[in-house]
Specification:
The protein is of the alpha+beta class. Helix content is 41%, strand content 15%. A hairpin with a 6-residue loop joins β5 and β6.
């Protein structure tokens, strides 16, 4: 543990430590200020026993090579000369963890939950493609970053992560028992074990609580009789790993179909979504998150103007077209390639 004197000094030559915000099996986490950029960061300090260093070293190797929009990036790392301790630096996510959101009573609508699951599933798909299973997916390890004013959820803490060969399993036991797939204790962890853990997180968000193990068969049956999103969650948490989705890409594909069905489908909204992808270079997932934040509160063009994604002139012209004052196609106003479908 860092002494009081040490925490008042800069670590790694540039980070001023603030309050302690967490303690784990391999270290302590501090909020801090990067004096070089005046940005808030998180400093994770390895101050545990030496026999935990293998876990720490594994996390260092993993986080430095991972670059994904839904994985918290590692900004810096090194051994601090003054304290003699190894440290990892991450951006500070002011939105807090998913656990904090649950404790505060935040409820996730089906569209919001679908968006969250697509993001985290894509993070796990990326991790698995690089031969790594997370092994500790839980609300505490999901944090909220702000992308403009739209919530964006990121996966963090690969301290329990392990490299596995294609089709292989990790035999050692790691992670949180409450979110652990049943096959881990007998056969080891695989990518489908991460899928199970994420499915439990989704179930907890739906029910506002994590059901006990003995309750889960009944709840899975209820989910199987629910809407399409509930059916996806039920499949993810099937006790038999062979009955889950074959991989996270399959989960993403199914969730993507569901997200598309949740989109408003008026001609104007459809073309504005296309405009955001073609002209503003937003991903389909980013568009879905924008629509969720809009939530039909006022005209969509005005919403996009406020976020700097559409000009005021375009919004005024769209309004005139909608009211019949101008005989132009919406596609022309948005500078989209004109198809026979949108020529009118």
């Amino acid at each position: 543990m860092l002494s009081t004197t040490q925490t008042e000094e800069l670590v790694l030559g540039r980070y001023k430590l603030g309050k302690r915000i967490g303690t784990g099996s391999s270290g302590t986490v501090f909020q801090a200020m990067d004096t070089a950029t005046d940005q808030s960061v998180v400093v994770k300090v390895f101050d545990s026993s030496e026999n935990s260093f293998a876990i720490w070293a594994t996390e260092m190797k993993l986080v430095m090579r991972f670059h994904h929009t839904h994985i918290v990036p590692c900004l810096d790392m090194g051994r601090d000369d003054a304290s003699g301790l190894w440290m990892l630096i991450f951006p500070y996510c002011q939105g807090g963890s998913l656990r904090r959101a649950l404790v505060s009573g935040k409820k996730f609508s089906s569209p919001h939950l679908c968006s969250l699951l697509i993001g985290l599933s894509s993070a796990l798909a990326y991790s698995h493609a690089h031969g790594v299973i997370h092994r500790d997916v839980k609300p505490e390890n999901v944090v909220c970053a702000s992308d403009g004013d739209v919530a964006k959820w990121l996966l963090t803490d690969f301290g329990a992560g392990r490299y596995v060969s294609r089709g292989g399993v990790a035999r050692s036991i790691a992670g949180s028992l409450d979110y652990m797939a049943p096959e881990i204790l007998s056969h080891g962890a695989s990518p489908r074990s991460d899928q199970f853990s994420l499915g439990l997180v989704a179930m907890e968000l739906r029910l506002q609580r994590l059901p006990a193990v003995e309750e889960r068969p009944r709840i899975i049956e209820q989910l199987q009789e629910g809407d399409e999103l509930s059916k996806v969650v039920a499949k993810m948490i099937d006790p038999d790993p062979s009955q889950r989705f074959v991989d996270m890409q399959a989960v993403i594909a199914q969730l993507g179909h569901i997200a598309q069905s949740m989109r408003p489908d008026t001609p104007l909204v459809v073309l504005l979504c296309r405009y955001l992808q073609v002209q503003q270079k937003l991903s389909s997932e980013d568009v879905d998150r924008l629509l969720l934040h809009w939530n039909r509160t006022g005209p969509l063009p005005q919403f996009l103007v406020e976020r700097g994604l559409l000009s005021k002139a375009q919004a005024r012209t769209l309004d005139a077209v909608n009211k019949g004052y101008l005989r132009l196609s919406i596609a022309t106003v948005l500078e989209l390639p004109l198809t026979s479908e949108h020529a009118s």
